[in-house]
């Protein structure tokens, strides 16, 4: 028999947006149910040092912050379930979401906070050496390259953060960027340029990962101004070129932009389906910060609460007529 679980507020995804939505929904007496996914906590789980989440004067670790959010959400009454939503049906209410486990989650409102995942370069050799030199997470894999030479691709905060982290472990870090300036915050850039272990190669694209049966041994890089291709020695490659929203299961079910981000109304987390809300990196390609995701999670819970209150008052006035 199919296991069915009903909730007033179903939260899909367990990053800062999801947990904040859960805290607010629970405190509004809505008994939210959160389906966490198999890797709960989102991108902060692979972020070593967090220095810009307000409330903490000293550096904190991403996984610790997520554990605190989880404990806080559960303490105020959120039920969390480890399952992965495989499909959704938003055609009628109650909404339906089916987990990998076979459980069907029905809900009066849904808050989508599935976040985003690392973007890859998309070259065949990258795939071939994934896990044997190629990674998208220095905090997870950096240790394997102790006293070795590594490459980082990208020019944003992630790339600079990865390069700085790797410089503490590796003998040399080469940051390869396709333009002649970084988009990372100035404070991060200053740290990068001051670090004698880090070299930056500008106007350059990574063409191919080279290696043998022991793993990666180097890469072919192309100067985008001159077209010149050269080889560079390295045992590791960390790709840090942004993120793609985790929205595959919502394709065709909700309005999205060309890059797959869920579209929400202005100053709101409301999607095009009344009662379905989206918060955090799944809808935000501009700010993408833990604190902005948390803010959107709060908005989504308040909006879900108002939506449910409106449904109730409509039902009551219909019954009174
Ligand atoms: P991002 O800011 O979008 O930067 C992506 C970088 O990768 C850009 O420099 C981009 O180049 C480059 N790039 C994109 N596609 C590429 C391709 N196919 N080949 C080569 N290079 C490519 O992404 P992010 O660094 O992951 O940061 C995402 C968000 O998270 C940002 O808002 C960032 O501030 C935030 N974040 C914050 C922290 C922190 O505060 N501690 C840490 C990490 C991330 P162009 O510059 O030429 O476009």
Task: Explain how this protein is built.
The protein has seven helices and 19 strands. It is of the alpha/beta class. The strands form five sheets. Strands 1, 2, 5, 6, 7, 8 and 19 form a seven-stranded mixed beta sheet that branches. A five-stranded parallel beta sheet has the order 10-17-11-12-13. Helix 1 (16-27) runs parallel beside helix 7 (290-320) and helix 5 (157-167) packs parallel to helix 6. The longest helix has 31 residues, at 290-320. The model has no long low-confidence stretch (mean pLDDT 95). Residues 52, 121, 153-159, 161, 178-179, 183, 240-243, 288 line the site of NADP nicotinamide-adenine-dinucleotide phosphate.
Summary?
The chain has about 325 residues and is of the alpha/beta class. About 25% of the residues lie in helices and about 30% in strands.
Write the layout of secondary structure elements.
Blueprint lengths: L3 E9 L3 H12 L5 E3 L13 E2 L9 E2 H14 L3 E3 L3 E5 L5 E5 L4 E9 L3 E3 L5 H5 L5 E2 L2 H4 L7 E5 L3 H11 L4 E5 L9 H9 L3 E4 L2 E9 L2 E9 L5 E5 L2 E4 L3 E3 L30 E3 L11 H31 L1
Parallel strand pairs: 1-2, 1-8, 2-5, 8-19, 10-17, 11-12, 11-17, 12-13
Antiparallel strand pairs: 3-4, 6-7, 7-8, 9-18, 14-15, 15-16
Helix pairs in contact: 1-2, 1-7, 5-6
Bound molecules: NADP nicotinamide-adenine-dinucleotide phosphate.
NADP nicotinamide-adenine-dinucleotide phosphate (NAP) binds next to α5.
């Amino acid at each position: 028999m199919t296991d069915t679980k009903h909730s007033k507020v179903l939260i899909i995804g367990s990053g800062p947006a999801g947990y904040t939505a859960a805290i607010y929904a629970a405190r509004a007496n809505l008994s939210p149910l959160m389906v966490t996914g198999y890797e709960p906590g989102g991108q902060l789980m692979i972020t070593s040092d967090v220095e810009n989440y307000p409330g903490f004067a000293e550096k904190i670790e991403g996984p610790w912050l997520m554990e605190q959010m989880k404990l806080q959400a559960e303490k105020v009454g959120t039920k969390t379930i480890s399952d992965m939503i495989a499909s959704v049906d938003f055609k009628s209410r109650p909404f339906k979401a089916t987990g990998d486990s076979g459980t069907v989650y029905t809900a009066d409102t849904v808050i989508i906070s599935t976040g985003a995942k690392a973007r890859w370069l998309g070259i065949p050799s990258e795939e071939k050496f994934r896990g044997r030199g190629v990674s998208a997470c220095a905090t997870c894999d950096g240790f394997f390259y102790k006293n070795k030479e590594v490459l980082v691709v990208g020019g944003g905060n992630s790339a600079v953060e990865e390069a700085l982290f790797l410089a503490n472990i590796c003998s040399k870090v080469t940051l390869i960027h396709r333009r002649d300036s970084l988009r990372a915050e100035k404070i991060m850039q200053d740290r990068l340029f001051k670090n004698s272990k880090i070299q930056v190669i500008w106007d350059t694209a990574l063409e191919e990962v080279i290696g043998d049966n022991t793993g990666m041994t180097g890469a072919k890089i192309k100067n985008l101004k001159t077209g010149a291709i050269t080889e560079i020695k390295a045992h590791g490659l960390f790709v840090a070129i942004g993120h793609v929203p985790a929205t595959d299961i919502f394709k065709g079910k909700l309005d999205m932009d060309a890059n797959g981000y869920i579209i929400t109304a202005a100053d709101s987390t409301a999607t095009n389906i009344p009662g379905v809300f989206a918060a955090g990196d799944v809808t935000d390609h501009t700010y993408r910060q833990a604190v902005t995701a948390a803010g959107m999670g709060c908005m989504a819970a308040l909006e879900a609460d108002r939506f449910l209150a409106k449904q109730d008052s409509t039902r009551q006035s219909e019954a009174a007529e």
